[in-house]
């Protein structure tokens, strides 16, 4: 009885092992390839519980979802001889697991092959384009051309390229520095021109202002001289009228002015005769005695 149970248990264990090695599950995000001694036998595309020959067949799984790829940055020479550092990315899916396994084996091999193919297509297509064309609306058509060429090259690999895009396209560092230096020199040249034009305009404005100042000052002096002359003439007329009314007062006034000017300095010495007409108002405020002589 015990022997029978042992045999039955052994059979169950063996059956479980055989069943476990005969069953495999393909998830919705996967596709599989059944290998027999390393030789592909069949593809499994649909998800679910699947069967294979136990012990002699293995299963290799591949992604059925869209995968991302970041090829290494590369330098491209455009048709107008400008150099660009191009940083691209791509998205692809595995469409034929059998061809995929035969040609590249796994995703690592696929990424290596795809990077080379994509970079070659980028150099080939962008080499016929100018920088203006890449930056214009023609960029969509350029990327479609690159994707088409890459798809043609990878069709035999069991891969489909869904999308190829340029993440960045920049000038190399040395080119960017040269452009910066040229732009800086151009801005400095423009600044010098603006300063020179400003200095010239300032000089013209200053010269015009100086000219206007000279003209205004000359006109003001002329007007002042005219007014002064008119004032002096009016003063002389007034003096003449006033002195004509009283000649004696005029004589007295003139003598007082002469005394003030002559004796303004304390060290002034006059050598004159006491009977001189100059002193006649010292003796008499009316100057009478001198006048009588």
Which secondary structure elements does this structure contain, and how are they paired or packed?
Blueprint: H1 2-22, E1 23-26, E2 30-36, E3 39-44, E4 48-51, E5 57-63, E6 67-69, E7 74-77, E8 83-94, H2 97-103, H3 107-126, H4 131-135, H5 139-154, E9 159-170, H6 173-245, H7 247-262, H8 280-283, H9 288-292
Helix pairs in contact: 3-5, 6-7
Could you explain the architecture of this structure?
It is a single chain. With 293 residues, the protein is of the alpha+beta class. It folds into three domains: 2-63, no CATH class; 67-176, 2-Layer Sandwich (Tetrahydropterin Synthase, Chain A); 242-292, no CATH class. The chain contains nine helices and nine strands. The strands form three sheets. Strands 6, 7, 8 and 9 form a four-stranded antiparallel sheet that branches. Strands 3-2-5 form a three-stranded antiparallel sheet, covered by helices on one side. Strand 2 and strand 3 form a beta hairpin. Helix 3 (107-126) packs across helix 5 and helix 6 (173-245) packs across helix 7. The mean pLDDT is 84.
List low-pLDDT spans: none
| Cα shape | rod-shaped
- Number of beta strands: 9
CATH architecture of the largest domain: 2-Layer Sandwich
CATH class category of the largest domain:
Alpha Beta
Strand content: 15-25%
């Amino acid at each position: 009885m015990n022997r029978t149970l042992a045999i039955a248990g052994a059979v169950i264990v063996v059956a479980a092992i055989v069943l476990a090695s005969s069953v495999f599950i393909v998830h919705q995000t996967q596709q599989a390839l059944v290998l027999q001694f390393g030789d592909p036998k069949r593809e499994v595309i649909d998800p679910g519980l699947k069967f294979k020959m136990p012990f002699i067949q293995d299963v290799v799984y591949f992604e059925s979802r869209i995968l991302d790829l970041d090829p290494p940055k590369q330098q491209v020479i455009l048709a107008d001889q400008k150099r660009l550092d191009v940083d691209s990315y791509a998205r692809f899916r595995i469409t034929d697991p059998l061809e995929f396994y035969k040609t590249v084996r796994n995703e690592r091999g696929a990424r290596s092959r795809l990077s080379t193919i994509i970079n070659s297509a980028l150099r080939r297509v962008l080499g016929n384009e100018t920088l203006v064309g890449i930056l214009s609306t023609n960029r969509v058509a350029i990327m479609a051309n690159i994707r088409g060429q890459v798809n043609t090259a990878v069709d035999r690999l069991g891969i489909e390229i869904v999308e190829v895009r340029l993440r960045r396209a920049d000038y190399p560092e040395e080119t960017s520095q040269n452009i910066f230096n040229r732009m800086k020199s151009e801005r400095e040249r423009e600044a010098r021109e603006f300063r020179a034009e400003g200095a010239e305009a300032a000089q013209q404005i200053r010269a015009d202002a100086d000219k206007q100042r000279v003209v205004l000052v000359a006109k003001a002096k002329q007007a002042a001289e005219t007014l002064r002359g008119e004032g002096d003439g009016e003063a002389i007329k007034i003096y003449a009228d006033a002195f004509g009314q009283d000649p004696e007062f005029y004589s007295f006034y003139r003598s007082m002015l002469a005394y003030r000017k002559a004796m303004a300095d304390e060290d002034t010495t006059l050598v004159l005769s006491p009977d001189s007409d100059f002193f006649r108002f010292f003796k008499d405020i009316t100057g009478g005695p001198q006048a009588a002589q």
